[in-house]
Design brief:
Layout lengths: L1 H9 L8 E2 L7 H7 L3 E5 L5 H9 L3 E5 L4 H9 L4 E2 L4 H8 L7
Helix pairs in contact: 4-5
Length: about 100
C-alpha cells in the first residue's frame, strides 16, 4: 500500500482503493491517511457489519473475485458497492432481477 500513500501525496484528486485479502477491523484511520474513498476486499471476508462500518465512514466497498451466483447474491444482500468478477454475464444475469430487500 506504500505506493498509494505516495500517489496521494502527489495528487489528492485520484480515487484510491487498496486491496485487502483479510478482514480489516477499524481500518478507517489507515484508509484516511492514504486518502482512500474505496476499498477492494476479498468477498469471503465481508459481512454486513463490515460493510456498515465503512459505509458509515463514507468508504465504498468493491469486492473481488465473485464468480458464483450464490456469492453474488450474498454480496448484493450485504450491500457492497461493486462486484469484480471473472464472469460478467453471471453477475449481470444474477443481479438484474433481484430485490436486495428480500
Amino acid at each position: 500500500h506504500q505506493s498509494l500513500f505516495k500517489i496521494n501525496k502527489y495528487n489528492k484528486n485520484i480515487d484510491l482503493a487498496p486491496l485487502f485479502y483479510a478482514r480489516i477491523h477499524d481500518g478507517f484511520d489507515y484508509l484516511k491517511k492514504m486518502g482512500c474513498k474505496y476499498i477492494h476486499t476479498y468477498y469471503k471476508v465481508l459481512d454486513k457489519n463490515c460493510i456498515k462500518y465503512f459505509h458509515n465512514k463514507g468508504i465504498k466497498i468493491n469486492t473481488f473475485t465473485v464468480n458464483k451466483k450464490i456469492d453474488i447474491l450474498k454480496m448484493k444482500r450485504i450491500a457492497v458497492d461493486g462486484i469484480i468478477s471473472d464472469n460478467l454475464e453471471t453477475v449481470l444475469n444474477t443481479v438484474k432481477n433481484i430485490n436486495i430487500n428480500d
